[in-house]
């Protein structure tokens, strides 16, 4: 859990900054209101470790209202709020599409193969049990993998085939296809009537390198001002492909479900101060300063401190849910 204060981070101003939209009011999170709106319902966070980050933020906030019961099993994490019969679920799905590490054609065991045109049945088999689904994906497309369409190999990421075949699809295009695939599956499922919230690509703030090559966000104690953002072309194009996949899926929708895009990418690009940085765990002996050679300590500039910016995501989720179940009444 990204409890940055508990992990020794010395500053705390990052907890107090709050995003305010220009043309509408975003109320503070109201735990009682959330449980009331979700009465007799289930909300599922599905995706990668950023989905876990957001779920843990929600649980921390709701815990101030009611302590949930752990009803998890080996398929999913489940937290039950008895007062209103509300279940919060998390299911891990790195890419949201079907994947296997088993051998396929000339690709050996141990290399992840992604079927970009097949949704991940790990969670799709449970989809009818969920009233609200929050999806999170994207960052695993930077990892080693092989891409398949119609059971044919079409691309590679950080893996070179033995015949040096050229990749037809890169990781960015693969991400866009995966978004369209999973959202189309949900928007055309004949019996799914839930609310699907697609949280847009979460910006990281590694400067001077990537997560494994010396990238750092140490020393960021305030949000960036306009003109101070270190723009990431990768983040921008991943966001663009995600929005394109979302829009394509909307056009294919045939069921009574509802799809909403929760676009946080640009707004939270300013929050380079909101990551754990070197305060990733409670180890009292962890390195938090640059070494004699000037290299930064190991950093987490992807996930978000709690309390911190990620709490605002759940304020947005609550407002989306409120508008879904009560209608739009605020200006």
Summarize the structure.
By secondary structure, the protein is of the alpha/beta class.
General description of the model:
The model has no long low-confidence stretch (mean pLDDT about 95). The protein is globular. The longest helix is centred in the last third of the chain and has 20 residues, at about 235-250. The chain has helices at about 30-35, 50-60, 120-125, 170-190, 235-250, 265-270, 310-325; strands at about 40-45, 70, 75-80, 85-90, 95-100, 115-120, 130-135, 145-150, 150-155, 195-200, 260. It contains seven helices and eleven strands. It is α/β, with parallel strands linked by helices. The strands form two sheets. It has a seven-stranded mixed β-sheet, with helices on both faces. It has a four-stranded mixed β-sheet with strand order 5-6-8-9.
